[in-house]
Amino acid sequence: MAEMAVKNVALVGQAGVGKTMLAEAILHLTGKTTRLGGHAGTKPTLDYDSQEAARGFSISLTMAPVVWQKTRINILDAPCYPDFVGDAYTALSAAETGIFVVDAADGPQVTTTRLWYAAENLKLARAVVVNRLDRPETSFENCMDLLHERFGNRLAAVTIPMGTGDAFKGVIDCVHMKARHLENGKVVETEIPAEYADAAQDAHDTLVDLVAEADDEIMMKYLEGEEITQAEFEGLLGTAIKEHIFVPVFAAAAVKEEGIISLLNAIVAWFPTMADLGDIPLVNGKELNVSPDDKRPVAFVFKSLNDPQNGKYSFLKVLTGTITPGTELINARTRKTERLGHLYLMTGRETTEVKSVAAGDIMVAAKMDALTGDTLSATGEVQVAGFTFPNSLYRVAIEPDVRGTEGKVYDFLQKAADADPTLLVGRDEETAQTVISAIGEAQVSVLLERMAENAKVKAHTVKLRIPYRETIRRTATGHGRHKKQTGGSGQFGDCHLRIEPNPDQGYEFVDEVVGGAIPRGFIPAIDKGVQETMAGGVIAGYPMIDVKCAVFDGQYHPVDSNEMAFKTAARLGFQDAVAKANPVLLEPMAHLKITVPENYAGAVMGDISGSRGRVEGMNAAAAGQTTVEATVPYAEVTDYATRLRSLTRGTGEFELEVSGYEQVPGDIQQKLAAEYQEKRASGDK
């Protein structure tokens, strides 16, 4: 592959605003495809997954590498449906510029805003494409007002539309002051129509005002009333974008492919390369110098993909040096050597083998052990600082449809979690459930459908089992006697127990037997019998905690007594005592920190009260945001990720920590106890 300038851009924004169609238009106009994919019955190049076709939106990050004016542009098309937004963060981590696509009618929405600040934290350049200007009831001016309201006045139009809705017929380039539209797929440039001349001049003047700040000397000249030349103006645009002095806004209608050429020209002329953005932070607090002079190969794995036909693909961005097939690099996380075999460029699902990949470019390698977020280098000493994903707070248990396939289900889930950092899989030994944490319900649904399709094994979701606990509220005594005669030597054990609450001190066992009523050798068996009974629970089958137990009297038989007999007697005595000690059920409590727009705070607090919770504080957060702190029974908020999204139309965020136990209400205790007795009666323990 001949070296050329490389620019990596991520298409992000609210779901359903036409990001993928924009990428398809870029593929078509650059000659990568012969038709506009995904429109008028044509098959899309990028949304190739069967789940994407069925659901009508992007699920996974896909690539569209194109060449325009001797520059490679790697388009990273990111899904931004809330449950799959993790790939948008992934795309931003590999890009130099985040291109935010917004709907001309709706303006920037919640997901757009979150990703905007994620890009800001990554210190990326940003641009905006106002798409769908060919749709009815759109207004470029209103959309610009919304953008300014949300993101400030550093945003300025580089192109503006000629008309909107059915009257949309192209764009005006406000840098070069030319009108531009397509005829039979070819760009036609004309003078600006008179009716748009004033708007174009106003936009041009705004651009000049902003970009002049990129050079102190030119800024002083401008303030003193001197004209900035066209050459000076154009020369400042790239610096102004790179240094976040201004954010370019482009008008477009991807379905009509209008405005796309202007965007491509701008990417080539002004958008930054990796080297332009400077050194890359490492986990040790230092930075990786990405100077072209550094020939040592370093690559960062920003995405993993399990392809059902070809196995695992790893998407890598080369940070320094050049990588060729057969290159061996050390994984900083595992300290193991990875051999990069065949290297590919990937467009949608189609791969093209390449012979070398230089710094700043993106490639795909097959069958690597590396995981998303790993760094590979010649020494293994380089480790790029990881990027932050959204919280995976939707938790649900997974069970196979067919017994005996548990291993296959777990293996598939674990491989999926290795590829996607927003998925976490674990085995809860206490509840005997396989639990998956994800961003949302749809993410888990797609995962299970892919499992059925690719691994040929089916599973379903079930509610999380809540790890309740049992304890007692008062002191009581109990008597346990086990006597069994079977013809030969029998079994005999007899003990008297006293139990009392032991708050926050766990389990404690005391031997108070005097006079040899029970030989010392049988006391450990009594202790063990009590502990085994506590582990299995007495009320509803949940472990018992915070109990002090004393054995103070009993009887034994010199022939028939043994450890098993006294362990059984202890079980009976402990159960007898618990029945008199006001046994209660405890439930785990969840501490929530919920941040929402202030107009949703009332609905959130009402929901907490309706969930047996209590609000413990409310504070102002960022502008227009309120943080509510609350404690709620965990059983009431296992689905809180879904509920909060519904309550706040996707604008809320929360943190959840489970800690501490509180007594459950009597009606819930009775219900759980009845369910336990029903299971025991049916033989299901």
Structural summary, described in words:
With 685 residues, this protein is α+β, with helices and mostly antiparallel strands. Helices cover 29% and strands 31% of the residues. It is built from 17 helices and 36 strands. Helix 13 (523-536) packs across helix 14 (563-580). The mean pLDDT is 92.
Jot down its keywords.
elongated, single chain, 8-stranded antiparallel sheet, alpha+beta, 7-stranded mixed sheet, 685 residues, 36 strands
In short:
The protein is of the alpha+beta class and 685 residues long. The longest helix is centred in the C-terminal third of the chain and has 18 residues, at 563-580.
Number of strands: 36
Structural class: alpha+beta
Biggest β-sheet description? 8 strands, antiparallel
List unreliable stretches of 5+ residues.
none
Beta content comes to 25-35%
Give the % helix: 25-40%
Outline, from the CA principal axes? elongated
* N-to-C span: 64 Å
SSE layout and pairing:
Elements: E1 5-12, H1 19-29, H2 50-55, E2 62-68, E3 71-77, H3 86-94, E4 97-103, H4 110-121, E5 125-131, H5 140-151, E6 155-157, E7 159-161, E8 171-173, E9 178-183, E10 186-190, H6 197-211, H7 216-223, H8 230-242, E11 247-251, H9 260-270, H10 274-277, E12 280-281, E13 287-288, E14 298-307, E15 311-320, E16 322-323, E17 328-331, E18 337-339, E19 343-347, E20 350-354, E21 357-358, E22 362-366, E23 375-377, E24 394-400, H11 406-419, E25 424-428, E26 433-438, H12 441-455, E27 459-462, E28 469-472, E29 476-484, E30 491-501, E31 508-511, H13 523-536, E32 547-555, H14 563-580, E33 583-597, H15 601-609, E34 614-620, E35 625-633, H16 640-648, E36 653-663, H17 666-681
